[in-house]
Design goal:
The chain is α+β, with helices and mostly antiparallel strands. Strands 1-2 form a two-stranded parallel sheet. It has a two-stranded antiparallel sheet with strand order 3-4. Helix 1 links the parallel strand 1 and strand 2. The chain is globular, with a radius of gyration of 13 Å.
Length: about 70
């Protein structure tokens, strides 16, 4: 049985309660670490983005920054 390897998560965090965003955050990182899924996280929450291995910043449809922070 083939499973999906990518999990796309759009965090419109401004409209959710903070505990709900935290639950989605925990689920995303669980899927990445335990299920070996690639997580594409879309968010305006910089503190959440800073917990990821890579941040790609898009402004006006263009990539303006790409920081791979894996050591």
């Amino acid at each position: 049985q083939q499973t999906n390897k990518i999990f796309l998560s759009d965090y419109a965090s401004a409209i959710y309660q903070s505990h709900f965003v935290f639950d989605l955050h925990i689920l995303s990182f669980y899927l990445h670490q335990k299920e070996n899924k690639t997580i594409i996280l879309i968010t305006h929450n910089l503190s959440l983005a800073e917990e990821t291995q890579r941040i790609i910043t898009i402004r006006d449809g263009n990539i303006v920054a790409d920081s791979n922070r894996v050591s």
